[in-house]
Amino acid sequence: MSTHSNGSKTRRWLVMVDGSAVSGKAFDACCSFINVQHTKGGIDDLSVMHGIDPKSDAEKPFHLRGSRILSSYESNFIKAKRNYDASGKGHMETRVISQMFDGSGPTVPVAQLEWARGAGTTEVAPPIIASLLEATAKQVHPDFVFMGSFGTGGKKVGANGSVTDYLIRLLNSTVCVIKHWRPVPKPEEPATFVVAVDDSPASLKSLEQILVLAKKSDKIVGVTVSRHKGPKDEKIIEEASKVISAHSGIDSPHINVTWKPLVEGAGTAAEVLVNAGEELEADYLVIGSVNTAHGAKNRDNICILGSTALFVSSNSKCHTIIVKPPVNDD
Prior knowledge:
The protein is α/β, with parallel strands linked by helices and 330 residues long. The protein is built from nine helices and 13 strands. It has helices at 21-37, 54-57, 66-85, 127-140, 162-170, 201-213, 231-246, 269-279, 307-315, and strands spanning 2-3, 9-16, 43-52, 91-100, 108-112, 122-125, 144-148, 174-178, 192-196, 219-226, 254-261, 284-288, 319-323. Strand 1 and strand 2 (9-16) form a beta hairpin. The two termini are 16 Å apart.
């Protein structure tokens, strides 16, 4: 998020689309969040991006060709702007980005063994990922990226589709993954956010981020997990309460922080969090994550997700928001 000389702020939003129904749901979810923010004034910059391999694009059915997909979002922007302008004092800017790539072009490393770098120890994402990452960094600099859990094709890498799985790990922005089987709350409906809370800065950042994004009618539940509730858990709840107090106001959503036991035989902390999302009927399960290997602040090191964040994003039945700290890519 950038601040201008006059004090106004620009919030940058990006939706990755591919013509699938779930990417359309991701667009709708993004617009719902934007409509909460525009009452605060400033500028909301909304971009839609689609990766196109000209060779394979020509072989696709007409409705799945890049030009057709992007033209449909030009129409969607008209409706989104109309809803945005209905109330509030913000200003929306929109654009579609057609990102061309060569299917046999450069790839991008995803993860590697630090002590043994080589072809056999490095996972490599396909050219479309390298192209989308480059375009995202150079043209958008998004604060938030929305995408569907499955698209129109591509091999399955994790529990999500291939493009989604790679981008979750490699993007330097907060990522919202919309699950194809889960309804997206309508703008006028209250949403429930379950936020994983521990003693890490990334965790408190995720709570802070949702406090900014949520609307007054929403419900936020912070969940901390341990085997036995003790002084450490009380400290976590205390720190979370401080974050909540700093953002409290007349338009604040309902918030509480609770503790969940890590029971022998019930699975890992990540599994407890996924189950908590279902138990609390969450629309969104929120978890903070590191951005790059060993806390690096640039692209020289490879982005990773912590094991808990990766498990939650892959296995949660509700929509997932992975909050990442900002990275200086200069």
